[in-house]
Amino acid sequence: MIRFAREVELLQDLTASRERLEKALPFPGITEAVEFGRNYLSYGSVFFQRGYFDQAEAAFAQAFRDNPSSAEALYGIGSVYLNQQKTAEARETFERATKLQASYPDTLANAWNNLGLLDAREGRTEQAIGFFLHALQQNPDHVVALENLGSAYRQLKQWDKVRESFDRALAVAPQDPEANYGIGMVFAQTDDTARALEHLQRALQSRPAYPEALNNLGILYLRTQRRDEAVAKFEECIRVAPAFDQSYLNLARVYALEGTPHKARAVLVELLKQHPGHAQAQEMLVQLGPR
Prior knowledge:
The protein is mainly α. The chain is built from 16 helices and no strands.
């Protein structure tokens, strides 16, 4: 039997914040300084932002050789490692950065935040919370740390702290898509559907191509018997984020429950084109039975 109530993927908590975090560097405006000389931090920032990670690492390493007390240089190297999935190297480099002096306001907050992210990825939620709190000691208005803190508390179902974290983030950045998504998911999980809808819609106003928000808005529409709007959101999510699997699965479940298995199969076949061997898609095709 195909079900889609509590078994659908409502929580994909850290994804959006993680993507924004990994693209960030702590020195805004530094890329404009390259004309003033061989500023290796500037070169590293330019290379990093354009995705040339080997060159970025070399530039940040030279900046660190030129100034071994530079937290920014180590933070840049750690950011490269993070994007290259070199987890151990990233962790060690961020830890070293937190022990140095920073020239830019958010360097140390970003380093602590990234340490928290690494622990959160590995399931060490309570340790991650400690790192996010360290980041907020450096900058109480660090929006990404507030969002990640809220997501970590959500893993522990500490709802009051979740609300507090995302409320603080929204106080700093009312239109921030991740903060609106995060508080929206709190309301979804505590069955305050109207407020969940409001905040997911706000998240999409700021970021129309936000797959988690589109998918979960579709789920909330299903909860409130708005089938056509739910299907439209799942289809939109597939269109703007074809690699995101959950909307395919949810749309296929809708068609299966409606007694149109040929439509469900077609959706699952499209998912398998994106993700050959996708276990859930293959299982659902078996459950749908022969053509």
